[in-house]
Amino acid sequence: MTDPAPHEPIFTTVAEGRMALDDHEAVTAMLSRAFPTYSHWYQGARSWAGMQPEKRVIARSGDVVVAHAGLRRQFVTVGETEVVVASVGMVAVSPILQGTGLGAQLLALVDRAMSDLQVPFGLLETGEQTVPFYARHGWQLLPELTGTYNDFSADGGATLVTSQGGWLVKPVHTTIAAWPEGALHVNGQIV
């Protein structure tokens, strides 16, 4: 097998506890570019906005992070049923590389990481404009789902957020028919 050209991104899946300070700084730099509205969250080595991930899928071109997704196993309550999910968040491709297929590669590795976490479902919340992208990659929109979670401000203040729309589920080790009925309550923050 030949080595990829220096400009071709190399993907890795890494446990959070194996990330060094410079890894966090590189992820932070890319996330602040990808999410300019939330760039105040991504400062220095603070490479997360909600709950700190358990695993990360990272693509690098040389030393530069060009794509990222965070995952964490988490219990949620749907109706009266507790379900363990892979909370997926901070899914981003560097703005200059969007539309190149890098996002599809990223989501394929997110699928593998969710499978390795042995969860029945992946769960994420996203904006209306990105729902079609996720739908093309097997995520299913639950348009009637109302979700509640804890949201913390950059200075640490907590608020309870209720959101309807933008909740997506991906069956991992089950089928979508196994997703329970009812409102979603995330027992903590989302990734």
TrEMBL record:
UniProt superkingdom: Bacteria
Gene Ontology molecular function terms on file: acyltransferase activity, transferring groups other than amino-acyl groups
InterPro entries, per database record: Acyl_CoA_acyltransferase, GNAT_dom, NodA
Coiled coil: none
Keyword annotations from UniProtKB, A to Z: Acyltransferase, Transferase
Domain N-acetyltransferase: 9-173
Gene Ontology CC annotation, any one: cytosol
Protein name as it appears in the record: Beta-1,4-N-acetylglucosamine oligosaccharide N-acyltransferase NodA
